[in-house]
Amino acid sequence: MLSTVRSSLLLGALSASMALQAQDYLPILQYHHVSESSPKSTSVTPAQFTEHMDYLVSAGFQVVDLKSALDDLKANKALPEKAVAITFDDAYRNIYQAGFPILKARDFPFTVFINTYPVERKSRSFLTWEQMQEMQAAGGVFANHTINHPYMLRKEAGETDEVWFARMVQEVDTVEALLIKHLGESPKMLAYPYGESDRQIRTMMKDRGIMAFGQQSGVVSADSDFENLPRFPASGVYANLSTLKTKLNAKPMPLLKEKNGGDYAGDQPVSVRLTFKEGKYRFKDLACYVAGQGKAKLDWVSDTEVVAMAEKPFNVGRGRINCTMPDNTGAQYYWYSHVWIRSSPDQGYVSEKS
């Protein structure tokens, strides 16, 4: 009887220890090229990529399969402690030539979001289906990045809203069919080209059971919008290992709700209203930054609610507000980001009312 009690206590302690080690959020790294000669803004060199992957090993990170981890988060299942996922956008051949050997040597799973037009045209700069099959056999997963990598919210000249939307449906559904034809399966994940989506596009994803990614930075949790998930860019100016370490140790901002005014910015400065969950947080250390403008003005409307405001309107293009706050240990940061589009009439963006 005593041994049974001891066993139960031991199992209970072990379960508690495992629970403490579990993680209910996931940082995701986003890469494009792995090359010395590709555009620096979207590239890491093989040496930089090796440095990143070696750091994941030495710091005890556990690289997980993205699709499985997202499914677990949606189901409120815990991930391994220090879980992280690795992704690439676009089907560049240098991922196979320079990135894949580094990943394979460490037995790291990874996901590549592919735009299929250059693949089908057999462009020498892009992956072949045979290379993808080889990578798939070693833990690679291939997901949707549309056919032509369009700005998904821009209509072509003369297009009606209905014709535009039918074109976007084709951009998505064609790639889903090609993934199944050539690789035997689709993970039902998509990365929006240029990170752009709106309510209509996100509803299309939800109707198809597709989890999708924007280009806002942050950490995925069960509270995330699974049709507009964040990732951390790790290429170009973001390839510095010291800043990447901060992002790898980020947590999702503990928000009860947010109000950001939607996907589009106009001729007035943007703002975001954040309402925090109950808890002991270091609110005095919250800092928000506006792209191209520096620190945002913070207006605390209650003990747990703040409005972060830009000083000036955004220029045409994409703008964002990023907010960070240290946790109580000071070792990790909570992270939040929202992206707006400031369009010009000649770009043909669909109405936000859609």
TrEMBL record:
GO molecular function: hydrolase activity, acting on carbon-nitrogen (but not peptide) bonds
Tagged with keyword Repeat: no
Keywords: Signal
Organism superkingdom: Bacteria
GO biological process terms, semicolon-separated: carbohydrate metabolic process
One GO location term (cellular component): extracellular region
Domain NodB homology, chain residue ranges per copy: 82-284
PROSITE patterns: NODB (PS51677)
Annotated signal peptide: 1-22
Gene3D superfamilies: Glycoside hydrolase/deacetylase
Compartments where located: Secreted
Database matches in InterPro entries: Glyco_hydro/deAcase_b/a-brl, NODB_dom, Polysacch_Deacetylase
Principal location: secreted
Cytoplasm in keyword set: no
TM ranges: none
PANTHER family, alphabetized: POLY-BETA-1,6-N-ACETYL-D-GLUCOSAMINE N-DEACETYLASE, PTHR34216
Name this protein carries in UniProt: Polysaccharide deacetylase family protein
Species: Marinomonas profundi
Organism phylogeny: Bacteria, Pseudomonadati, Pseudomonadota, Gammaproteobacteria, Oceanospirillales
